[in-house]
Design a protein that fits this description.
The chain has 91 residues and is an all-alpha fold. It has one domain. The protein is 77% helix and 0% strand. It has five helices and no strands. Helix 2 packs across helix 5.
C-alpha cells in the first residue's frame, strides 16, 4: 500500500487529514484525563497534528506512513483499554 501513498494525492490528503483529526481530538482531552493515562503520548499526538496542519506543504510521506502503520494500532488499543476501564470493562 505504501506505493499507493506515493502516487495517490487523494490518499495522501485523506490520511493527512485523518491524522490531523486524531491530534485535534487529543488536544481537546482535559488535562486531568491526560494525566490519568500517561502511557498515551499526548504531546506527540498533538505535535503531529501541529506539524501536519501548519507544514502541509512539506509532509514527509514516510513519517505519515510510519505513524499510520506503526503508531496508530497501539494507540487505538490503548484508547480501547482506557475506554473499557472508564465504562467498567464492558468494552
Amino acid at each position: 500500500m505504501r506505493p499507493d501513498l506515493d502516487c495517490d494525492r487523494m490518499l495522501q490528503l485523506s490520511l493527512t487529514r485523518l491524522v490531523e483529526i486524531v491530534g485535534e481530538a487529543a488536544s481537546r482531552v482535559a488535562a486531568a484525563d491526560r494525566a490519568a493515562y500517561p502511557q498515551i503520548p499526548w504531546p506527540k499526538i498533538v505535535g503531529m497534528r501541529q506539524r501536519l496542519a501548519h507544514g502541509y506543504d512539506v509532509v514527509d510521506l514516510q513519517v505519515l506512513w510510519d505513524t499510520i502503520t506503526d503508531d496508530l494500532p497501539p494507540l487505538i488499543a490503548e484508547l480501547k483499554r482506557a475506554l473499557g476501564e472508564e465504562s467498567g470493562g464492558d468494552q
